[in-house]
Amino acid sequence: MKWMPNFNSSGSLRVIFIIAIFILLFLSSIAYRHNQDLNDSSKLVMHTYEINIQLEQLMSAIKDAETGQRGYMITRNSRFLTPYLFSRDKVNTSFIALKKLTENNPEQKKNLKKLFKLILQRYVSFENCLKYSDPKTYDKRKLDNHMFGGRILMENIRFQANEMNDIEKQILEERLKKYDEEISLSPFFSISLFLAALIFILLAYRQISRDLESLKSYNKKLLISSRLMAESEIIGKFSTWQWDLDADKIDYSDNQYRLLGLEPKSFIPTKEIFLEFVHPEDRSAIEKSIQGIIDNKRLPFIYYKVIRRDKQVRHFKSTGKLLIDNQGSKILLGINFDITDEHLLNIKLQERNNELEKSNQELASFNHVASHDLQEPLRKIQTFISRVSDADRAVISDSAKEYITKIEASAKRMRVLIDDLLLFSRTNTTKKEFIKSDLNHLFENAIAELAEVIEDQKAKITVSKLPKLSVIPYQIEQLFINLIGNSLKYSQPDLQPEINIESEKVLSADYPELLDQSITKYHKITFKDNGMGFDPQFKETIFVLFQRLHSKTDYPGTGIGLSICKKIVENHKGYIIADSSINIGTIFTVYLPK
Predict the structure, then answer these.
(1) Distance between CA atoms of 123 and 121, rounded to whole angstroms?
(2) Best-predicted range by mean pLDDT among 204-213, 258-267, 520-529?
(3) Phi-psi region of 557 (alpha: psi -120 to 50; beta: other; left: phi over 0)
(4) In angstroms, rounded to a whole number, what is the distance separating the alpha carbons of residues 239 and 513?
(5) What's the pTM value of the predicted model, to 2 decimals?
(6) Considering Cα of 160, then 161, then 166, then 167, what sign does the dihedral take?
(7) What is the pLDDT of residue 498?
(8) Is the Cβ–Cβ distance between 487 and 533 less than 8 Å?
(9) Span 493-514, average pLDDT
């Protein structure tokens, strides 16, 4: 009788498992070397694909920049510049990746260098196109030249990228041929693939588990984001809506219902129901805009009123934009803003403007009174006093002579005060016509106006070259007269007056606490003298109307001159400051926008 081994079930499974392990180890040992070679070949193949992908991303970034630039030049909407602004980072990222990928290929390194040089030239062309398309610096000839040059550069960029692609394709074909040869080297390759597939399945299962966890995390973040958006709509008093034009289905955000005075999801949104909320005065306009959406697939800004369920009238502003998804469905995305508070504020502003207009009219009436009615009796007082002859003065008492002298002085001060008030008023109310002017000519006019005083005091005045600016000429000339006259008035008795005027260009970024940062460049003009100076604690007070640091008996004046200077500089959107030291001198600094 022949002996037969008797295995139980668990023993058989154990043997089978052991045999399978040995088989797997055997196959693995055979496939190990082949897999190593195959891995090296795969890396080479992936290297070629990565270069092609990076070149495609590079071209895509440049095309996005070109599209954004054209959109901005057509619409002047800064949102179109977003892809243009971000394209530089994308280009730099792709270039760094390509530089690393081609570091072992001298020919491709040379081609990449040419490509990057062309891209830099293209971005310079972008900047020039934006510059000469701007209304402030518009130059059609230069714009056309740069646009045409940009098109040629784009063609050269494509040619260079295609050349690199062709080289990579040739290398890829050689590598794929080698790859195919390596695949046919061993009959165990299919088994190796099976093992690899099995490993990948296990890894995929592990990755799926991880992805499920990540998906849960992303869903949680999305929920938080949705809640934040809902809260933002409540705080910002706006709502969003979607209109599927193909299915004629409208969806509202929760806050849209609240803006209409209702609870979220309290009705099914339709065009007809929404029109019931629209104020009768605006209903026909809204109906036309709805039809315009259907016809033109867009919704420009439209302003209208709605009547909420609580009978409260609210002012709305709406806009929308058409989107087409991958399936070709047309969806209009829109936003409604509750601008009631803004509308009421505009009404208040209009009322204030009306009050200001009335105040300006009253000020104009004051100018008329000051220039005619007030000066007429003053002229008569001066005329009648001037007719008192020396013979008449001889027969009157000394006290009467003193009275007449005081009347003459008071009348003279009154005339100066009225003239200064009129000058200050005209600085505020006259038409502000800016003309491109050479400040050197205006300075010469001011010196001519003060020539007599300068000669009497033997003052020494030096000035550097002043710029050409768009200014109100007579006001800048008055500014020079007042500042130089102020230095002459308050000069030291036993010292020759010296006034030095200098000009230079400065950046607003260097003076963040003083200058408006929205204006990049200013012209800084300084007036420095060696006069009697003043206490620095009064460096702001001196620009206040009617403020004087000395009595009128010591120094004549009305306390209006420096106020006029400040107003003139403000009319030019500039700034004026003062700094001084007693018995050393004063420096007035004027900043005028370039």
Answers:
(1) 5
(2) 520-529
(3) left
(4) 39
(5) 0.41
(6) positive
(7) 92
(8) no
(9) 90
